[in-house]
Amino acid sequence: MSTKQIAVTGIQPTYDGAFEVTGVFWLTTPASMVEPQPAFVSQVPFVDADTLAALRKGTLTEQAFQTGQYNADVALDFVQADLIVQYVAAQEALTVSAPALVGLVGTLFNGSGWNPA
């Protein structure tokens, strides 16, 4: 499986030809934040089955984005590179926000010890 990281879902043009880009980042969920969501519904209508399965397992986190305005004459390569920079920043922010309680979510105490659910 090839991990998808960015899905562009729309472009909003303005009166002067500038535009904004919308979509989602699919971020790798830090281990301490993994929480299965079996009924998760992606904002992306063309999400593939493997990505949706990872989102439902909680190993990926879907985060919506809307860029600032780009000038009408900006090159596609620039927009794509900028989206990658924004993705990296979002991934770093999610990673540093992870609580230190790695492995606590999804465990059960049985009276004598902690076990995975």
Architecture blueprint of SSEs:
Blueprint: E1 6-13, E2 19-28, H1 49-57, E3 60-66, H2 76-96, E4 107-109, E5 114-116
Antiparallel strand pairs: 1-2, 2-3, 4-5
Short description:
This protein is α+β, with helices and mostly antiparallel strands and 117 residues long. It has helices at residues 49-57, 76-96; strands at 6-13, 19-28, 60-66, 107-109, 114-116.
Describe the structure.
- There is one protein chain.
- The protein has helices spanning 49-57, 76-96, and strands at residues 6-13, 19-28, 60-66, 107-109, 114-116.
- By secondary structure, the protein is an alpha+beta fold.
- The strands form two sheets. It has a three-stranded antiparallel sheet. Strands 4-5 form a two-stranded antiparallel ribbon.
- A hairpin with a 4-residue loop joins β4 (107-109) and β5.
- The longest helix has 21 residues, at 76-96.
- The chain starts with 5 loop residues before the first strand and ends with a strand.
Largest sheet: 3 strands, antiparallel
Shape: elongated
Q: How many β-strand stretches?
A: 5
Strand adjacency order, main sheet: 1-2-3
Tell me, rounded to a whole number, the average pLDDT: 91
Distance between the termini: 26 Å
Unreliable runs = none
Q: Helical segment tally?
A: 2
| Beta-strand content estimate | 25-35%
Radius of gyration: 18 Å
Fraction of residues in helices? 25-40%
**Order of SSEs:** EEHEHEE
